[in-house]
Specification:
The structure holds 2 protein chains of 2 kinds. Chain A has a domain at about 55-60 and about 100-275: Lipocalin, CATH 2.40.128. Chain A is of the alpha+beta class. Chain A has helices at about 10-35, 110-120, 120-125; strands spanning about 55-60, 70, 75, 140-145, 150-155, 160-165, 185-190, 190-200, 220-225, 230-235, 245, 250-255. Helix content of chain A is about 15%, strand content about 25%. Chain A has 3 helices and 12 strands, in the order H-E-E-E-H-H-E-E-E-E-E-E-E-E-E. The longest helix of chain B has 29 residues, at about 1-30. Chain B is an alpha+beta fold. Classes of the chains: A alpha+beta, B alpha+beta.
Chain lengths: ~280, ~160
């Protein structure tokens, strides 16, 4: 028996299927949401019951794309490796980088983004050893978790940075100046540490390529321990210049026994020798 | 009415953003290496000398390379290379870069602004034959196309 495309029977089936699909999707979303917020059994915990975030976390330093090749005789190819002889094989070093995750700006600010990107060598503070700021700095390299506060330590190509973030319910400080890392206070939502950041200066970028923000920016970072990893993602709210909240690239940091070392000095010696505005690829 | 104007603006901005992201991606992909504005990817020099110092610093490590010039004087070449995080990920240390420092050979891209004795370190090969590579050691052709594939893999 055939059914015409606009028959009531088919229409009912389509509606039923759509409804079923919607329920299934909602169910899956709800399940994911519950899983994300409810305590997980396999996570180490402190005496207060919250997940233990203490430790040194390898967040990839923004160079996950780099896969050095260790060759015979102690040789190492870090980048620009020659292809091996014989048939072409998949390269392992310097794999293709992921597509850029770029904020959506209001139309009147796109020219500014383009100008900043075109003059990236002069305008991007990171290329001058200045702080990348939150959220560009990404997940912390080390976390010290104590009753009432967490301390985030960063070992960044621009230098070493730290943040002390209360978790005791206090409000944002009002006695501090705007800064690149802002003022953070945190609370727990289930097993997720939610860090609320305000009081930013406007001289950092959200990511590479001219992604500026205003000093009215508000950032919410979410950190969740899963086994021996921490999942991190930040959402940026800056409606003056952004059409919609922007989520940073989702990052996973892995617990490591490789302890942080003495901070490496950052000394900018490049910019004076740049002869044009060739883009300085700046993985982060 | 206001909502429809908002959605139109959002659509236009999104399309422009995607276009901008595409341009940015293309530009990133076109870069020969991360410091193309500073060093000439179309020229490769090969020098022989001695590793005299390693400056373990960000955003780039510098290796000093002493080269005997025609008049017998030693020139101190300052060679930029990768950031500390990349060097550490490759398992390379200051000690490894400095060991077996005599009679080494380096392939470099010279500075574009004409600064003497300055370059980007593509590859260093030590007297015993082992090497560390930090960039494609085949010069990019002048027309901007990617460098040709080398005939054979380095030992």
């Amino acid at each position: 028996m055939s059914t015409s495309p606009d028959s009531p029977a088919l229409s009912r089936r389509v509606r039923f299927c759509r409804a079923g699909f919607s329920v299934a999707v909602l169910g899956m979303c709800a399940a994911v949401g519950v899983a994300a917020s409810q305590p997980q059994g396999d996570v180490p915990r402190l005496s207060d019951g919250h997940p233990d975030l203490n430790g040194t976390w390898d967040n990839g330093s923004g160079i996950d794309f780099l896969h050095p090749e260790h060759l015979s005789g102690g040789s190492v190819c870090v980048a620009g490796c020659d292809p091996p002889p014989g048939p072409a094989v998949r390269r392992t070093a310097a794999r293709a980088r992921p597509a850029p995750n770029f904020p959506h700006y209001r139309p009147q600010y796109l020219a500014k983004v383009k100008y900043l990107n075109d003059h990236q060598q002069q305008m991007d503070g990171v290329l001058h050893c200045r702080s990348p700021g939150v959220p560009r700095i990404g997940p912390p390299d080390k976390i010290v978790e104590r009753p009432g506060e967490v301390v985030f330590l960063y070992d960044d190509v621009s230098g070493s940075f730290w943040r002390i973030i209360p978790t005791d319910g206090r409000a944002h400080r009002t006695d501090v100046e705007d800064s690149t890392l802002g003022d953070g206070v945190a609370h727990w939502e289930g097993d997720t540490l939610v860090v609320d950041d305000t009081r930013f200066s406007d001289d950092t970028w959200l990511t590479d390529n001219g992604a500026f923000h205003t000093d009215q920016m508000h950032v919410v970072e979410r950190l969740r321990r899963v086994g021996d990893t921490i999942e991190w993602q930040a959402t940026v709210y800056d409606p003056t210049v952004l059409l919609e909240p922007w989520k940073t690239t989702f990052r996973i940091a892995k617990l490591t026994q490789d302890e942080l070392v003495e901070p490496t000095p950052c000394i900018d010696r490049d910019i004076a020798h740049e002869v044009d505005n060739t883009h300085h690829d700046n993985p982060r | 009415m206001r909502r429809s104007a908002y959605f139109r603006a959002a659509l236009v901005a999104s399309l422009v953003s995607f276009a901008l992201a595409g341009v940015l991606t293309a530009r990133i992909g076109a870069a020969h290496h991360s410091v193309g504005g500073e060093f000439d990817a179309h020229k490769k020099l090969t020098l022989s000398g001695v590793v005299s110092q390693v400056e373990w610093a960000n955003p780039h490590i510098y290796l000093h390379f002493a080269v005997k010039e025609a008049n017998g004087a030693l020139a101190d070449w300052r060679l930029e290379t990768v950031p500390v995080a990349m060097m550490r990920k490759a398992g390379l240390t200051k000690a490894l870069l400095m060991s077996n420092a005599e009679n080494a050979t380096v392939d470099i891209n010279p500075a574009r602004d004409g600064t003497q004795h300055m370059g980007y370190l593509l590859k260093i090969t030590y007297a015993d034959g082992h090497h560390y590579q930090f960039g494609a050691d085949t010069p990019a052709p002048a027309n901007g196309a990617p460098p040709p594939a080398p005939a054979s893999r380095s030992p």
